[in-house]
Design brief:
This protein is of the alpha+beta class and 757 residues long. The protein is 47% helix and 18% strand. A hairpin with a 5-residue loop joins strand 6 and strand 7. Helix 8 packs parallel to helix 24. The relative contact order is 0.10. Belongs to the cation transport ATPase (P-type) (TC 3.A.3) family. Type IB subfamily. InterPro entries: ATPase_P-typ_cyto_dom_N (IPR023299), ATPase_P-typ_P_site (IPR018303), ATPase_P-typ_TM_dom_sf (IPR023298), ATPase_P-typ_transduc_dom_A_sf (IPR008250), ATPase_P-type_domA (IPR059000), HAD-like_sf (IPR036412), HAD_sf (IPR023214), HMA_dom (IPR006121). Keywords: ATP-binding, Cell membrane, Ion transport, Magnesium, Membrane, Metal-binding, Nucleotide-binding, Phosphoprotein, Translocase, Transmembrane, Transmembrane helix, Transport.
Length: 757
């Protein structure tokens, strides 16, 4: 690249890390998110994807006109950010790093410019209409020819600011598209604007030719005004429907108070926080990193991240998460995770990816955008051919009306506007969408397969009974239990670890060859305090190699030292509060509900009986669950898999669509299409209903866009639709689509419980 490339400053890794995420700690593959203000339609997004994909080193590009975001996956060994930033500039789309302050500033500047363009267009339109009105109402003998000509000149002068200032976004974008030999939404619009202005100018300064002496300044200025009004309101409505993501990305503070080595509080930039720092957080401020409270007690607002509206008490030693708000008291916190390691960062990354992802139903607009625009030009040419022999002036103006009325704004907005409205609404309610395709997929399901532990039952179980071997000391047994379960995320292991720690067990025994077997248990070699290496296993009866005791529905977990069973633990789990009501309502909606669990058959059958689930299977390993779901899919079923995300990775990835309960799950590794951040399984009922409503609104939008064009094009070709009315219809159709999508911003996730016992 040339040294004049203005984006070369982004080639420094510390700079591109501000708006990019690495695929893994050892990978050279990065995913960057940028903001493109001038991307307005499916044709624009398609052109961006097509051009950037051709650059060597760019692996994938996802552009969304609805959210104005572009996601670029690239190889740092083959390309630098300045190269694809410069390429975006060359094709007429100036990009800005998404999470930088200047991106927000640029948006504000662009909105103000658009408002000024709108003000100028509306003012000139009103003046032009004032001059045009007498010519429409007066008889031919009421006005002198010189006065009529003077009004035309005045209208031409008033139209110049509209052409040179108000309409420049459309004209410049159209020129950029034509230079790349591609069509965008602004091409037919600009052709219509230019044709109307040229015809009117000829009629003003050289009347008497085939173009006649009729001017269209009123139609031109009115059309530009309507177009700008539509685009202005479009920006406002986009910000409202997609605002959840931006609110999250701007939630962390820019500066924090940190305790230095002298014990003094100093203000530093949030980007300079390190693990181990002590931060001072006042009421009303936002926690800037993940960590724990070391001094003080307070309550925190975690609604932005978990969807839980109730404040969460945070005593000394409690964990706090970045992005949550301190509500009541001054506290000091010790930083444990910063940057990419925080839960907040994981949420933002997944939402940013979802905002640029295109569901299957949205690809329709991308596929038809270019052919549709070529069809528009052919229809305009048909209008010219049809009317030219009768009235050349009317032929040109009919073509202008065709170009205006078929502007594909409504078609390109129909799907993404509704999808992003629901995505933002779900985010506010504690449901994170990883793939927008999930909204469409969930609306089609006929079967739901549930995991048990952590999904339908509470994540943390309680140890009801602990039986230990007489020849082994309780202290050593608890130390082994606490150490071997220390790094596991499985709910049973976490419950046993909590039980051991509460009895002052040590968690730092040296371990070798630690391994967790899905559906079985944990094995490791532990160095005891007597410097003896012991092969330890913790898990179910089959994994431990013992005969299972009869215990009904209760879970038995065995701790083995070699071939000796040194302890047996009995755990009890509690059904989630809303699980029974939720399952009942899902069944009443005609959905087939099934339960698959790695737990023993007795507790699985017992839970199924409590919840009214007819099909339930226990002792299911990960591969068994996968085979079961694949068999259902072979039968033509649309399967939704709901699990805790800890040991259901293969089946979650293979299902038609999937939802993970997000409590304690590392979101950066989640394979689920959606993550319910809270603990309420009942949200699933209203979530499915809202997904169906979303697809219904998408279909309504697509139907309206198709009917509008089907009715408008024939009227325009026949000369029955003036340019100004075509502009009004085009703007109104786009606004109708966006207003219809706004119906999806109202989601009461507790509404499902009404009428339930």
């Amino acid at each position: 690249m040339s040294s004049a490339n203005p984006w070369q400053g982004l080639d420094i890794q510390s700079e591109w890390e501000r708006f990019s995420q690495r695929e893994s700690s050892t990978s050279n593959i990065w995913t960057s998110h940028v903001w493109v203000e001038s991307m307005h339609c499916a044709a624009c997004s398609g052109r961006i994807e097509q051009n950037i994909k051709q650059i060597p080193g760019v692996l994938a590009v996802y552009a969304s006109a609805a959210s104005k975001r572009v996601r670029v996956v690239w190889d740092a060994q083959k390309i630098s950010p300045s190269q694809w930033f410069a390429d975006l500039d060359q094709i007429g789309y100036s990009a800005l790093p998404l999470n930088e302050y200047n991106a927000i500033t640029d948006r504000t500047i662009q909105q103000r410019k658009m408002l000024w363009r709108l003000v100028v267009a509306v003012f000139c339109m009103m003046q032009v209409m004032m001059y045009a009105y007498p010519t429409y109402t007066a008889d031919s003998n009421d006005m002198a020819p010189d006065m009529v000509q003077l009004m035309k000149w005045a209208s031409w002068v008033l139209t110049l600011p509209v052409m040179l200032f108000s309409a420049t976004p459309f004209l410049s974008q159209a020129w950029a598209s034509l230079r790349q030999r591609q069509l965008g939404m602004d091409v037919p619009v600009s052709l219509g604007i230019i044709a109307a202005f040229v015809m009117s100018t000829l009629a003003t300064f050289a009347p008497g030719g085939w173009w006649g002496d009729v001017v269209y300044y009123d139609s031109l200025t009115m059309f530009v005004s309507f177009l700008l009004i539509g685009r202005w309101l479009d920006v406002k409505l986009r910000n409202r429907t997609a605002g959840a993501l931006e609110n999250m990305m701007r939630r962390l503070p820019n500066a924090v108070l940190k305790k230095n080595q002298a014990g003094e509080w100093v203000q530093i930039a949030a980007s300079n926080i390190n693990v181990g720092d002590i931060l001072f957080v006042r009421p009303g401020e936002v926690f800037a990193a993940d960590g724990k409270v070391v001094v003080g007690n307070t309550s925190a607002d975690e609604s932005m991240l978990t969807g839980e509206s109730e404040p969460v008490m945070k005593a000394t030693g409690a964990q706090v998460i970045a992005g949550s708000g301190n509500l009541t008291s001054v506290v000091e916190m010790q930083v444990e995770q910063v940057g990419e390691g925080t839960q907040y960062h994981a949420l933002v990354n997944l939402m940013a990816s979802a905002s640029t992802e295109k569901p299957g139903i949205a690809l329709l607009a991308d596929k038809v955008a270019q052919p549709f625009l070529w069809g528009v030009l052919l229809a305009a040419l048909l209008a010219v051919v049809y009317w030219w022999s009768v009235d050349p002036a009317k032929a040109v103006m009919s073509a202008v009306a065709v170009l205006v009325v078929t502007c594909p704004c409504a078609l390109s907005l129909a799907t993404p506007a509704a999808m992003l409205a629901s995505a933002g609404t779900f985010a506010k309610g504690g449901v994170l969408i990883r793939r927008l395709q999930a909204i469409q997929a969930i609306s089609e399901i006929d079967t739901i397969v549930f995991d048990k532990t952590g999904t339908l039952t509470e994540n943390l179980q309680q140890v009801q009974l602990a039986e230990t071997h007489a020849d082994w000391g309780n202290t050593l047994i608890l130390d082994m239990l606490a150490s071997i379960t220390r790094d596991s995320l499985h709910p049973v292991a976490k419950a046993l670890h909590t039980y051991a720690v509460e009895q002052d067990a040590l968690t730092d025994l040296v371990m070798h060859d630690w391994q967790e077997v899905v559906g079985g248990g944990i094995s490791a070699t532990l160095d005891t305090q007597a410097d003896t290496a012991v092969a330890v296993r913790l898990g179910n009866a089959q994994f431990s190699g013992v005969v299972e005791a009869e215990s009904g529905a209760e879970r038995q977990v065995y701790l083995m030292a070699g071939n000796v069973m040194v302890a047996r633990f009995t755990l009890a789990e509690q059904v989630k509060p809303h699980a029974k009501a939720a399952i009942s309502q899902l069944i009443s909606q005609g959905l087939d509900i099934q339960l698959l669990s790695g737990d023993r058959i007795a507790p699985v059958k017992n839970l199924a009986l409590q919840l009214g689930i007819q099909s339930a299977s226990g002792l299911q390993k990960a591969e068994d669950k996968l085979q079961h779901v694949m068999l259902l899919q072979q039968q033509g079923r649309k399967v939704l898999m709901v699990g805790d995300g800890l040991n259901d990775g293969p089946v979650i990835a293979a299902a038609h669509t999937s939802i993970a309960m997000g409590t304690g799950v590392p979101l950066t590794q989640a394979q689920a299409d959606m993550v319910i951040l809270g603990n309420d399984i009942g949200v699933l009922v209203s979530l499915i209903s809202h997904c169906k409503k979303t697809i219904l609104i998408v279909k309504q939008n697509l139907l309206w866009a198709a009917l509008y064009n089907a009715a408008g094009v024939p009227l325009a070709i026949m000369g029955l639709l003036p340019a100004w009315l075509a502009g009004l219809g085009m703007a109104a159709s786009s606004l109708l689509v966006l207003l219809n999508a706004l119906r999806l911003t109202d989601w009461d996730k507790s509404r499902w419980q009404k009428g339930q016992a």
